[in-house]
Amino acid sequence: MTGKNRIAFCSSQRGYLQIVSLLIAVLVLCALLCGCSDEPTDSTKPYYGEPSTLYNATSADLYCMEITRYSGPFVEDGTNEPVEDVAAILVENGSKQFLDRATVTYDVGGKTATFVVTGLPAGGKAWVLESNRMQLEEQLEFEFLDCESSFRKDAVTDTKLLDVSAVDNLITVKNVSDDTLNNVCIYYKNVNSDGNYLGGISYMIAFDTLDANESTEKASAHYTDNSRIVRYSYQTE
Predict the structure, then answer these.
(1) Which of 47, 108, 145, 149 has the smallest number of Cβ neighbours within 10 A?
(2) Would you list the DSSP string of 31-69?
């Protein structure tokens, strides 16, 4: 399946909106016919309230771009065991916020297929493998069941307080600020050959506390030249 399809199901409300619009027009006409006083009192002055500018991303901002079979290392549980013909979907985060986690389920030939994606930046796309390694041996129809998602409004996707470098799978993090940083963590995902992230999984490395200008290093088995940091977290004193 190809095409930009919303993961979340949205029912059409066109007929309902037309009825509401007609009723509003009738009420406005009746008010005009009844007449208004030339000097409106305080109780009749219009009040529209404070403008709302708060943006909240929802499951409706997630899109299934493609459904396919996948053969290669199974990355979702960290084992990287070889698999063949596993169901995979290409998920796009079309929102303006960082996707912390989403669980998407489909009915596939009477069985439930579950896809879990974490740590997907705004505008990012990831190939997500079916969590239980469901194999697709024939062309089956995917019927959407549900999508539960959570987003981070405060995700730190870029920072001037930390300097990160890597040689092979050895990652060095330096606190380049003037303050002590506690609970320093970096989160990264790996990139597929087509430029999209491979796997719904994201990896986390904790560096504990770093004093000003202090650096430390750790090895991560999944970190490669194709790894990209998607989020930082820390607390300042």
Answers:
(1) 47
(2) HHHH---SS--GGGS----SPP------GGGEEEEEEEE
Q: What is the pLDDT of residues 76-117, one digit of tens each?
A: 999 999 999 999 999 999 999 999 999 999 999 999 999 999
Measure CA 190 to chain center: 16
Q: Does the reported pTM lie above 0.85?
A: no
Beta strands in 121-180 (DSSP E): 125-129, 142-152, 162-167, 170-175
pLDDT of the residue at 204: 97
**Dihedral over alpha carbons 97, 198, 136, 61 (to 10 degrees):** 10
The H or E element spanning position 177 is none
Please give the DSSP secondary-structure letter assigned to residue 135: B
Quick one: 30 exposed, middle or buried, by C-beta within 10 A (0-12, 13-18, 19+)?
A: exposed
DSSP string over 190-234: EBPTTSSEESS--EEEEEEEE-TT-EEEEE-TT--TTEEEEEEEE
The one-letter amino acid code at 138 reads E
Proportion of the chain above pLDDT 70, given as a percent? 78
10 Å CB burial of residue 4 (0-12, 13-18, 19+) is exposed
Mean pLDDT of the chain: 84
Q: Is residue 155 classed as helix, strand or coil in its secondary structure?
A: coil
| Pick from 55, 56, 126, 54: nearest CA to 93 | 126
